[in-house]
Amino acid sequence: MTANPYAAKPWLSLFPERQPHEISPEFNDMLSALRTAVATAGDQIAIRFSSSNLSYAELDAASDRLAGWAAAHGVSRGDRIVIILQNVPAFAIATIAAWKLGAIPVPGNPMYRAAEIARQLDDSRPTLLICHDSHADTVREAIAIAGDDCPLLTVPDDGRDDPSIAGSFAAAMAENAPAPPAITIASDELGLMLYTSGTTGAPKAAMLNHAALASNSEAMALWYGIDPQSRILGIAPLFHITGFVAHLTMAIVARASLILFGRFDPARAIETIRRERPTWTIGAVTAFNALASLPDISPADFASFHRVDSGGAPIAPALRQSIADRIGHKLYSAYGMTETASVTHSGPIGRDLPVDPESGALSVGIPYIGTEAMIVDDTGKPAPVGEAGEIWMRGPQVMVGYWNKPAETKAALHDGWMRSGDVGFMDAAGWFYLVDRKKDCIIASGFKVWPREVEDALHAHPAVREAAVVGAPDAYRGETVIAHVSLRAGSIADEAELIAHCRENLAAYKVPRIIRIAGELPKTATGKIQRNVLREAEIETARAADSEKAQAAG
Questions:
Q1: 2 pLDDT tier (thresholds 50, 70, 90)
Q2: How far apart are CA 392 and CA 374, in angstroms?
Q3: What are phi and psi of 473, to 5 degrees?
Q4: Contact 320/352 with Cβ under 8 angstroms?
Q5: Quick one: which of 513, 377, 302 has its CA closest to 6?
């Protein structure tokens, strides 16, 4: 019988010398972490936003007022509070208020339309909703579609407090309702329900308990060197798992300051960086690509950062270098999922990420503190070192399951292991590499083509800013490889040139037969390029072409 190469955890030899291998959590729930921050660092700035700041004591008091109002309006333990906000202080206040009632925060995407929100409301059945003024009509429409009936509080788009606005978040807190009695939260109580982005299917709400949030927040703080002197830049949306944990809950656990500036915008982000001088952040590579494309950017702007991390999608080595040339930092790739409370793999401090010599993929790091990982083949057995298979992870940060979806929960969890649906491999030293989503694999003329490998080749062309590769139906080949790209400002390249570039760097069956050049590629609100949208468009184009052929033949 072949030995399991992952049982020995070869990645532990890559840990920094004094880094613990396992997490001994200080907190079993996030409410205890908040209370400790208030007791030991009450005057420390918790949130920096525009020209106003909130200390931990002020954040505590504000969340008390909201919790009191919510309790008076029927919110109780186990209820869901839907929070559809950008990165503004009200998001943090609402989240903590939910915890103080034993309720469950359910972040929502402010980019969603009424039908999308309604599906989530129908599933979660909240007792309170909070959204921005500009989104209120859409949310009210969603409430009507879902047949729900619960209070709605609104927050100005710029995040300011204005208690004179009837029905507003600020007006509710201004009522000064008595704070609810202090409660004790059990570690296994739910601290977050977060719907997956739905880029690979119908959205599902991952249930994360307080222990998962607290333990992973502590592990991340240790791994990234976050402490009370740290200033975390909130690039990732708080309604996304990276923003919720790697920004909000990690800041609370570490008693650090969280810098918010609303919805991501490159100009607003660089203005905030220059004013606040943050020390660490994590966000989608598209955000850093946008920052690096600003005409007046320089490494001096990022001199205050001790490290810059990126998650959500693999980083092409060529793109990583081009961004580093502009901002003075090589992005550290990280890997994780909504279902694992954000990060499970990341590069250790003091080591650069290797590039696999055969595939050209940049490593996503190693399983970090308290996390196990392995690569599993199609038979369900551990794959040999260097061979690709599905990435499985296990640790205290793994979700309880999917809300109201027992079948999907059973399919995703196996003996405590989270089945990621992502394809990757581990090298002999213990570094992990992400190949692609299983569902994104293209079968062209019987050969497997992984989009990431083709995208990496395209990123190596100096004119290419973004690239996404999908498969489209092809009667002869089964599927045809099609690339969508956007170009850097001032750069010129046509389809023939880009195809020729790919021929020089890829096997013939991997070379895109069609390359479409666009100004921008479709993205989720968290900055991920939406391959599914592009794939659906290509399928529709193929159907239309088939229909025209059939009509011509008839």
A1: low
A2: 5
A3: -55, 140
A4: no
A5: 377
Q: How far apart are CA 300 and CA 402, in angstroms?
A: 44
Q: How far apart are CA 533 and CA 553, in angstroms?
A: 30
Which residues are paired to 516 by β-bridges?
484
For the chain, percent of residues with pLDDT exceeding 70: 95
Longest Cα–Cα distance in the chain: 79
pLDDT tens, residue by residue, 418-461: 999 999 999 999 999 998 777 888 988 777 788 988 999 999 99
Give one DSSP letter per residue of 27-69, joined into a string: -SSHHHHHHHHHHHHTTSEEEEETTEEEEHHHHHHHHHHHHHH
Q: Which two tokens stand for residue 149?
A: 């009936």
> Is residue 547 within 8 Å of residue 554, measured between CB atoms?
no
For residue 552, the Cα-to-chain-centroid distance in whole angstroms is 47
* The residue type at 323: I
Domains of the chain: 54-185 (3.40.50.980), 441-553 (3.30.300.30)
Tell me the residue length of the chain: 554
Element holding 341 (H helix, E strand): none
- Do residues 333 and 311 lie in contact, with contact meaning Cβ atoms separated by under 8 Å? yes
Query: Which residues are 487's β-sheet partners?
Result: 464
E strand map for 201-349: 205-209, 231-233, 257-260, 280-283, 307-310, 332-337, 342-346
Phi then psi dihedrals of residue 201, to 5 deg:
150, -170
- Element holding 250 (H helix, E strand): helix 250-254
Under 8 Å between Cβ of 481 and 510: yes
Write the CA distances from 24 to 20, 38, 218, 342, 346, integer angstroms.
Answer: 9, 22, 9, 19, 19
Token duo for residue 96: 């903590």
Taking a C-beta distance cutoff of 8 angstroms, is the pair 98, 105 a contact? yes
The whole-angstrom separation of Cα 252 and Cα 539 is 46
CA distance 145 to 43: 44
- Residue 38 CA to residue 163 CA, distance in Å, equals 25
Q: What's the burial of 24, exposed, middle or buried (CB within 10 Å: 0-12/13-18/19+)?
A: exposed
Please state the φ and ψ torsions of residue 522, each to the nearest 5 degrees. Answer: -65, 140
Q: With contact defined as beta carbons under 8 Å apart, do 499 and 467 qualify?
A: no
Residues 173 and 359: beta-carbon distance below 8 Å: no
pLDDT tens sequence across 401-426: 999 999 999 999 999 999 999 999 99
Residue 299, CB half-sphere, CA atoms under 13 Å: how many? 10
* Phi and psi angles of residue 80, each rounded to the nearest 5 degrees, phi first: -105, 135
Is the Cβ–Cβ distance between 75 and 146 less than 8 Å?
Answer: no
Backbone dihedral angles phi then psi of residue 376, each to the nearest 5 degrees: -120, 135
**Residue type, position 425, single letter:** F
Q: Residue 354: which H helix or E strand, with range?
A: none
